[in-house]
Amino acid sequence: MRKLAFFIPFVLFIALSVFLFSGLFSNPMERESSVLNQPLPAFALPDLQQPEKIWTPDSVKGKPFLLNVWGTWCVTCNAELAYLTELREQGVMIVGLYYQQPVDAAFGEVFNLAALQQEVALKLEQQGNPYQWNILDKDRTLIFDLGVTGAPETFLIDAQGIIRYHHIGDINPQVWQQKLAAAYQSLQE
Amino acid sequence: MKYFFLSLLLITAAAQASQALVEFKSPEQQALFKELTHELRCPKCQNQNIADSNAVVAVDMRAKTLELVQQGQNKEQVLDYMKSRYGDFVHYQPPLNKFTLILWLLPALMVFGLIVLLVVRRKAERNFVASESSDKTQPQPEQQLEQQLDQLIEQYRRKS
After folding, report:
1. Is residue B41 included in any domain, yes or no?
2. Is residue B17 included in any domain, yes or no?
3. Alpha helices in chain A (DSSP H)
């Protein structure tokens, strides 16, 4: 009994070390999304290139798709455009949700739709266009309701418009194979 | 020239005065807004509250908090609104559930363990003292020898 007590501090030390060591390799950005398995929140937002067309949850659903939150200002988003375009060529349906950064009136900034359309068209021409269409979220209302923390983020939406997966960060071959491919395939059936 | 610089001073004064201030219907709402922006956590930056951060998401959350507070919603309602979108992570006060239970139990368990340890120790100490005092009733070999030695010394003194 005395000898056993002698080992208690040692065991505690090992347990603490293992706990802290495993913490070195955990990703603090990874956490359970609170919008999972919920229908798309209500929205009515214009198409980026054809602003007279308004998208709603009912008009986007019907087929499983990826909803990719991106912006031309976001470096990582630009980096994933090429791979997303590859996925589109493999038959994956991808819809863009354009993340417009706040316009700071104090610095004389104004929102210019025509300039943005041109910028986006140019960017997609250069890097590849993975999107069936882009939804413009100028005031980030849908982005807020989806619990988006930044760009890029990607949601997997099923045919009924239910959110099945929420990925924070870019999509690359590894992420696609490990996290999204199987879920996307299972929704196809 | 002097008047030119003086007029520059006037311009900066005017610019400062034009900075937008948030207006509240009551001091309670103002206090609530302040409390909420200090307790809500920016989901993008790892450890800043939304009052402290200028990340886009923090700016949006601040604006939303302001809007909800001005609508007259109470603290719980605003927190629920944020949590339904950004999860429990977004509030610096974690709720009590099966994942966070250990946070509440661990300190209590440690105090309990400490008390048990103290009680056990004290009991052992008491037993030790008790056994020592009970030992004194029976003469030890050493004490016997000492007594014998004392007797010898006494005898020697008497003879001399």
Report:
1. yes
2. no
3. 2-24, 57-60, 75-89, 113-127, 141-145, 173-175, 181-188
